[in-house]
Amino acid sequence: MTTRNARNGAAKSRPKQKTTKKSTKSYGEVSVVRGSGGELHQVAGDGVATMTTQQGIPISDDQNSLRVGARGPGLLEDFVFREKIFHFDHERIPERVVHARGYGAHGYFELTESLADVTRADVFQRVGEKTEAFVRFSTVAGSKGSFDLARDVRGFAVKIYTKEGNWDLVGNNIPVFFIQDAIKFPDVIHAVKPEPDREFPQAQSAHDNFWDFISLTPESMHMIMWVMSDRAIPRSFRFMEGFGVHTFRLVDKNDRSTFVKFHWKPKLGLQSVMWNEAVKINGADPDFHRRDLWDAISSGDFPEWELGVQLFDQKFADDFEFDVLDPTKLIPEEVLPVRVIGRLVLDRVVDNFFATTEQVAFCTQNVPPGIDFSNDPLLQGRNFSYLDTQLKRLGSPNFTHIPVNAPRCPFANFQQDGHMAMTNPKGRANYEPNSWGAALGGPRESPKLGFRTFQAVEEGPKVRLRSESFADHYSQARMFYRSQTEVERKHIGDAIVFELSKVERPDIRERVVSHLLNIDEGLADVVATGLGIDELPEAAQTVIEPIDVNPSEALSIVLRGPKNFKGRKLGIFVTDGADAKLINALTVAVEKPGALWELVAPKISGVTLSDGTQIPAKQKIDGGPSVLYDAVALVFPEEQALVLAKDACSKDFIRDAFAHCKFIAYSSGAEAFLKAAGVYDDLDAGCFEISSAQSVTDFIKACADLRYWPREVTIDLDAN
Ligand code: HDE
Fold this sequence. Notes:
This protein has 720 residues and is α+β, with helices and mostly antiparallel strands. Among the domains are: 297 residues, Catalase HpII,  Chain A, domain 1, CATH 2.40.180.10; 151 residues, Class I glutamine amidotransferase (GATase) domain (Rossmann fold). It has 20 helices and 21 strands. A hairpin with a 2-residue loop joins strand 6 and strand 7. The protein starts with 18 loop residues before the first strand and ends in a 6-residue tail after the last helix. It binds CIS-heme D hydroxychlorin gamma-spirolactone 17R, 18S (HDE).
């Protein structure tokens, strides 16, 4: 028998695992007990769940492998070790080729307005009915371990487990895309991913290959405007929109088709961070977005989106200035209003990341009867691609047997076998037609219930040709840019300058400016100046002259921001001796609209307030920079302010908050600190000295706005 001592292994530890008392079965010395998560355990006399191999064989020693004598060679027969290492060696599956970094949650979709007039889809029939859903948010370019606040498109993929099979709406937080034809997808993705010889930069579009491809692909210009806007650096998944992007069809009982575009609208309004902030958040908390989602759901503050539809017929499509099949175009809400018909609520975090978020397999071609495709060439290509990728990633055509992917409704067919088959057809027949009758013969097709493809009439030669109606690459880019508020336009200019400043080849930079000239001369000028280009290049050649279309308010984040401080977070920087009444007033005022607060202090053990109350901190100042908060408050007495005035991290806290246009509250004692940090002389209407409950209320009211934007006119951290 092996004895355990300090030299040959850790002492045996049997930590108590919660098991419910009721044992389901006892035999010999073993009983089987149900654990708190519903799982069954073998349990020995001491009531603790027994560790076993995957085969269920109880393990006596998980600290030492089997060997000859205490210092001898290992033994091949050690099946406990062999199985453990074998399994570990195979833990990884290929990460997604795009959208590798993602985060998912469970929830439900609830219909609030019937769409029975336009679709037979069961999920859209009964108002008030809830249908289980799973959502995965993601970035596109970065690998699985990359940081959350990359400048990137966010995936917004929703699986709704309807009574007629799974509906996957695999969308993004941007309503258009880089390319018009799926055949260019590998190119745009190769270009944005790390360059192949050096394998960097990670999760960034700011490099030569990306801008080289983009500058040679004018159809990407509209998308580029979005990606260079603050849409690409959202504050949280909870504050961003989602879009189905393509035009889809809804089909009713009589096989009548209506075109549709899908929109997810966040209940909290739209909000993004600033670029300089994003860069710093990535260092301070690379998991900023996933933590935010986890925390919100875990605390019962369930994120919610409205599902909206833009419905239109063939006549509208024919009359619209742009081709509704072109995925680089959107239909402005002002032209075709979004009708809200449901809501999506995320109310449960995952039990296990791998089992759900990693293994979930979205496929654009998963549509129930009543939802159908348009001829958008990107959508057509996607419908082919997604099944392929799941086989590569999950390793078996039986990926639909994984619980997160399995439909919740009954399903039956004659597909069988394959790796990891969890369900196989029962009965005598595994083919049809057959003559084994209802009991043994298996399922039959149903012309009545079954999916019937919309009978679009198509005719034409087989060609490799881009439709002329796809040729206007600049008008909607211009519309997007001109729909932005002043500060948002500035951010777009700053972002392009930033990105192109990382591009080594001057000709690529100039080529981008030549496209910008077709979008907005002011923007081209700002970018050229920011890059130090003295002479503007010729505007890029156009196939169709860009036109001016009406701006759309719905495209601006600032104009569609939150209505109050709900769902956001105040960082309260405190020290010993901080005014207890003020802290109390602050926390009460923050919680009123449903916002959160966190204490940041010189030590994690916390502080003793003026009335002797001791409170723990959530963050030590070095680990809790102001970029983690939507607004900040400084509450400390003067003697402590003088101490902090010498500390670089503390000064960064307030300098960054100020530079990022955040609303700032400060107690009178903090003035010396503000002076030392160099912001005192610049304090503006976004900064509130708080001394009473009323001044605290005024501060929190102001926080309803995203930021104090007027400050940006004088403070510019970005390029230019
Ligand atoms: Fe995807 N895309 N995509 N895509 N996509 C994938 O499928 C593809 C496109 C989107 O959280 C892959 O499971 C092609 C547009 C999301 O699991 C892959 C084309 C939009 C996700 C794939 C596109 C998207 C993916 C990689 C050009 C917005 C993450 C892993 C025609 C409407 C889903 C996977 C998740 C994932 C192919 C373009 C959204 C390879 C060929 C446009 C949200 O199949």
